[in-house]
């Protein structure tokens, strides 16, 4: 009888800790110094650090779900709202592609601000996701490189879009693919998109992989962190290493926001959780997307969160990379 009780207890423990619920939970992550992740040739050193701030996420177990229900900065979402029909592989692949693009844009912005030139080498067109209800779902996989359509080389995403636009629903295209190091030829039928019947296509998301060329060279190792939200902080760290002036002024500088090639800072998700993470990791100031002073901007949410958790960290609204640089220039060195 005692063995039965132990077995039942073990089953309950395993269920509470291992069973996967159809929910995804986000919580405050951490603020990681960017200096170890970014290497600019002949970089200058700084007294402080620029930080990338993350949100930690994972699929809910029963115990994790119950715990998160009572945590103020844990957010629970139905998993289909996060994945939107994508497999784990497709979702992760898209997030890493966003990160790659964000890094290139950050390099371009930092070099432009420093008065230096950049150029690009294009390295193919890749599948980021596949529409489940389109013929492409039986042909493509996330990560496939599109080499040609009906024998026409595809070097950029625009090549594929322009070729497909000339076709009609029901037409078949011969696609040459590079998959796991092997060239594969497939036929795919064009069809209307389920959510936009006026538009036809193969039913895949594509991205052009390009390598940015700079002098001095920039190397970034963000490991398995995905998404575009570190763009602003990447650009600030690169600029700080490129220039002789120490823009950290000895402070621990945190922040978040996408970055466009024009230097505009964009909205991100989980701003309140990132403020909490930055405060817990001892940051002195936090840059937040101002969104031109919009009513529910990331900056306003960040400022409200900072007040709620009673942090001493300053929350700074920015619309552009240049505004962030100007703010850092105006700081007195940390005493």
UniProtKB/TrEMBL annotation:
Enzyme class: hydrolase
Gene Ontology molecular function: ATP binding; ATP-dependent peptidase activity; serine-type endopeptidase activity
InterPro entries in the record: Lon_proteolytic, Lon_Prtase, PDZ, PDZ_sf, Ribosomal_Su5_D2-typ_SF, Ribsml_uS5_D2-typ_fold_subgr
PROSITE patterns reported for this sequence: LON_PROTEOLYTIC, PDZ
SMART domains per the UniProt record, alphabetical: PDZ
GO biological process terms, semicolon-separated: protein catabolic process; proteolysis
Top-level taxonomic group: Bacteria
Active-site annotation: 229, 274
Boundaries of every PDZ domain copy: 93-181
Domain Lon proteolytic: 221-331
Pfam families per record: Lon_C, PDZ_2
Reaction(s) catalysed by this chain's protein: Hydrolysis of proteins in presence of ATP
Record keywords, A-Z: Hydrolase, Protease, Serine protease
Similarity comment text for this entry: Belongs to the peptidase S16 family.
Name assigned to this protein: endopeptidase La
UniProt organism field: Salinibacillus xinjiangensis
């Amino acid at each position: 009888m005692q063995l039965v009780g132990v077995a039942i207890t073990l089953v309950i423990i395993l269920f509470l800790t291992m069973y996967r619920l159809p929910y995804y939970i986000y919580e405050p992550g951490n603020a990681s110094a960017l200096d170890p992740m970014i290497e600019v040739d002949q970089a200058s050193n700084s007294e402080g650090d620029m930080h990338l701030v993350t949100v930690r996420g994972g699929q809910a177990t029963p115990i994790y779900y119950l715990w998160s229900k009572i945590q103020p900065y844990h957010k629970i979402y139905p998993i289909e709202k996060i994945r939107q029909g994508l497999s784990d592989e497709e979702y992760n692949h898209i997030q890493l592609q966003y990160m790659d693009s964000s890094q290139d844009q950050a390099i371009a912005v930092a070099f432009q601000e420093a008065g230096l030139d950049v150029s690009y080498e294009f390295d193919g067109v890749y599948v980021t996701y596949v529409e489940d209800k389109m013929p492409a779902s039986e042909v493509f996989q996330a990560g496939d490189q599109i080499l040609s359509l009906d024998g026409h080389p595809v070097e950029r995403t625009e090549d594929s879009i322009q070729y497909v636009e000339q076709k009609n629903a029901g037409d078949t295209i011969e696609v040459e693919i590079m998959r796991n190091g092997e060239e594969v030829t497939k036929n795919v039928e064009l069809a209307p998109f389920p959510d936009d019947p006026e538009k036809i296509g193969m039913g895949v998301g594509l991205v052009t992989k390009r390598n940015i060329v700079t002098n001095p060279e920039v190397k970034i190792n963000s490991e398995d962190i995905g998404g575009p939200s570190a763009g602003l902080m990447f650009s600030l760290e690169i600029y700080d290493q490129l220039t002789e002036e120490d823009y950290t002024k000895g402070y621990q500088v945190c922040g978040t926001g996408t970055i466009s090639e024009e230097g505009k800072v964009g909205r991100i998700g989980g701003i309140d959780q990132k403020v909490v993470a930055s405060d817990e990791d001892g940051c002195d100031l936090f840059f937040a997307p101002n969104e031109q002073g919009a009513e529910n901007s990331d900056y306003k949410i960040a400022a409200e969160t900072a007040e709620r958790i009673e942090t001493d960290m300053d929350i700074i609204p920015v619309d552009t990379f240049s505004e962030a640089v100007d703010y850092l220039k105006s700081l007195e060195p940390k005493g």
